[in-house]
Amino acid sequence: MNTVGQDFYPSSEKTLIISNSSIAEKISKVVGAKILPLKAALDPQTPFNRFELVIYVCAVPIAVRAIAKLQLDKAKDPAIVCVDETLAHCVVLLGAHKGGNQAARYLETTLNIQPVITTASDLIGAPALDQIPNYHVQGDLASVQRRINETKPVTLIANDSKEVPKVLDALPNLDDNRQDYVIEVERHGAHLRGESNKGHVLLTKRRLVLGLGCSSDCSPDELSQLVQNSLGMINADLTQVLSAATIDIRKSHPAVLSLGLEVKTYGADQLRNVQVPNPSQVVDDVVGTTSVAEAACLLGASVGGKLVLEKQRSAKATVAIAQTQNRGTVSVVGIGPGSPLLRTRKSEIALRTAEVVIGFEGYLNLCDDALTPGQLRLSYKIGDEIERVDRAINEAANGATVALVCSGDPGVYAMASLLFERRSILAKAESFDVEVVPGVTAALAAASTSGAILGHDHAYISLSDLLTPWALIKEALIKIAPTHLALIFYNPRSKNRQHQFREAMEIMQSIRGAETPVLVAKAVSRVGQRTWITSIGNLDEETIDMETVVIVGGPWTVVDKDVIYTRRGYKGPSD
Ligand code: SAH
Question: Mean pLDDT over residues 505-520, rounded?
Fold first, then answer.
């Protein structure tokens, strides 16, 4: 079964590359997927609907003829893109809103392949109803989406304004009295009105979490049947399911994976602490907790979640269902230094599943390939960090899932600590959840470009005196300089802040000496990356700006041609 809007693309296991050309290996390197020759891909036995994304590397006519021979089904087929053999263009052929457009944008950021996108909503920046994270859409999508793309009025009907997806805030006209075009937002179990649903779409928030338990030899059919029956008992179906949850040892069980849902997993020690109505000693004897299905779905549904169906069982499987509360979250997401290749998968999932994405405009551009037109994007100028954080807090307190985007790691000179400060000042700590999603900080990416300068003890210091008095920064530098620590300088020098870097290097030179090796890394993993090795004495301060990390080595730092590393003090066999 195909996964729609749950787990993030590109997942290497769910992507297939089809090509006879060796150039496809370049794509395989950034996507991580297997390459199949064209002929093998035409074999009707190739299970296409096991994949979320298929990338043809060949001429478009060849790909189109190949696809025409497959028996595809709109609900299940993967997104399909075609890249020409010179890697100049990537054409989105199928499933534009099921990962196709994102795949094209990902290939643009990683390999500079020009995307060819033909879906109107993406081109004119209109919200796409079938791309709204955590919502299921049904009805006359084509007409209502066309109407939105034309920026003409539509009518919004909702019982509860908190249920309305945030991206609809971006619609200019929501007050059409004629009600020819209607977007209806319902909790669940709602039906499209009338015989014909012309001009009418229904958006339903996915809020059910399936708790799954199964024995190691449970078949996919058995689990799937039990899931269908269990959902039927509460008048629900798979379109309302947000995710599945189970014990960690069942993470890769074929029956669990075959449901095609995002799977959250928990250890026996976590599950054991959850109060459940039907604990079982037999289960405890086998896996070390008295409940898997009930406990896992309650954990998966997070704070405020409640059990809506107690444990159901078949011979080898158990299913329970919990419902999430309409409780917001702020994920403070680190997107790494720049390239998508240095992003964590968890941060990609957080970016893709957020309803509201907030960040400095430059950072939103860096992660554009992971965002969708179903999200409300709020981009800010540099400097208005408090406004940004407060907006994230207010949106989450109203029930939204928010990604607050930071470069590198969100806990390193970034927004995570400010978020905790502001939620306490605004007395909103209880009204939403916070998740800090780590990223690769600039120092680690910088060091890796040229060896291993951070191989031993090191310290970070920011030279920005906007928030810390310069006297304190200087005092710290004077104390650290005589130690063996390599020293990483963030925010080293800007147009209006230049003497600090000069003074810092003077301190380092007077204590560590002019010969001390230095790594300078600019725009790491971004367009225009430049890195070089020098010494404090030879460092040209004019080359240092706010997109640069400067790392000053310690006494154990060694330069070996184009590599700089810090020894860890190992003794060789002859010592
Ligand atoms: N949270 C970020 C740091 C923000 S402070 C992180 O963990 O990386 C901003 C400073 O980080 C910049 O002035 C620069 O010194 C450094 N920086 C961030 N990204 C960088 C990159 N791609 N290349 C070089 N330096 C970078």
Answer: 98
